[in-house]
Prior knowledge:
Largest sheet: none
Helix content: 55-70%
Order of helices and strands: HHHHHHHHHHHHHHHHHHHH
Strand content: under 5%
Mean pLDDT: 92
Distance between the termini: 44 Å
Amino acid sequence: SPPHPLTPPLSSLYPALLLLLGCFLILPHGDFRQVEAVPRFWMGIAVMSLGFAGSWSIASIQPLWFWGITILTRLLLLPMYPGNDIWRYLWEGLIQTIGFNPYQMAPNAAELIPYRTAWWSQINHPDVTAIYPPIAQLGFRGLAAIDPTVLLFKAAFVSADLMICWLLSRRFGDRKTLLYAWNPLIIYAFAGGAHYDSWFLLPLVAAWFAVDRPPSSKKGDWLKSALLTGISVAIKWISLPILGFLVWRSFRKPITLAPLVLICGLLPLTLSVIPFCQGGECPLIPTESTFVSHGRSAEWIPYLVQLIWEPSKQANWIYAIPLGLVGLGLLWKTRSFLMFAESYLCALLMLSPIIQAWYFTWIIPFAVASRNLGTRLVSLSAFVYFALPYRQAMGNPDWHLTLSERLWLWLPFVLGSLWTWRYSANTRSPLSKNSSSLD
């Protein structure tokens, strides 16, 4: 007889309890400005990581337990002190409700001094104008108009996160979706750290499912996927090459499809940018910012390059060249949304000069299908990143990982991904499972 829904097997009970215990342990230690916060945070993350690793061996799980733990872990972390990105979200939403344009005025603008809040001093890079795309800005504005509080913003990010869980579980089942739903990096990034990346991932996952479906996609599916990808682009710029992939593949369809795919993909950005354009100018990216031009944080390939070519540290734009070449190669070789998106995002992470721990959440939904070992391992090793705020709390302003820290963070991802890709090349590819060709 089937097990009672209230009596889960031990294989799912122990991982669930460890995840919950880990959440309790990290809850009081989200303010990394305190010297003792990061070591205690790491202790709780270690417990959560044991629970997550234990979930890899779960053979089956009842929906009640899957959703119960998925929701409860996130609810537990809602009161946690957030990461410092949240203060910029709140600020840029708030000043929009007053009538100011965040793309034209940096937080330290003299005109905005009368509106500074109690948390204003925690905004990072206060001399830089907004970098988040227009739909994200409109989302910040909508939330700030209701109540400019951390809790409301967190609830919005977690809501999108849970919708991603729902989409993945519908497509791949609860057991496989544990890789996302019970992932400590996902749980912390959205519910604890209050990072908004779940907003752009939700339409991207929906776009993936709209077009990667057997036996073939219809015209309406292509347009729906392009529109959803366009929404993702207008929330976070990194989705733009994925839109390019859809346009490229649509050229193999009837001649009228590619222009329609392009129009649908660009429509969300085109419409959402209108409120921010003034005097014929739409300054969406602060290219004059030193953070954009040569900022560095926990990078991998750019770090290796600067070891042999020191001047590369002053020119982040050069990494757009190898990324573009990788993108062209993927356009030529890949045929499914899943294969392109996951491969491109992995390349982006390895080539990016600026890496934050929560950036690795971008590839986790796709690993539910690919079962990429590297993604599973980096979901744990990414927490090495928090050595950076730990050193700052101790009075050391150096924002660079040591070589050993960098190896601990990156090698699990690189070696695990290589193992998965090699296995895929020699057997039936996990990357192609549950996804279809777009031809």
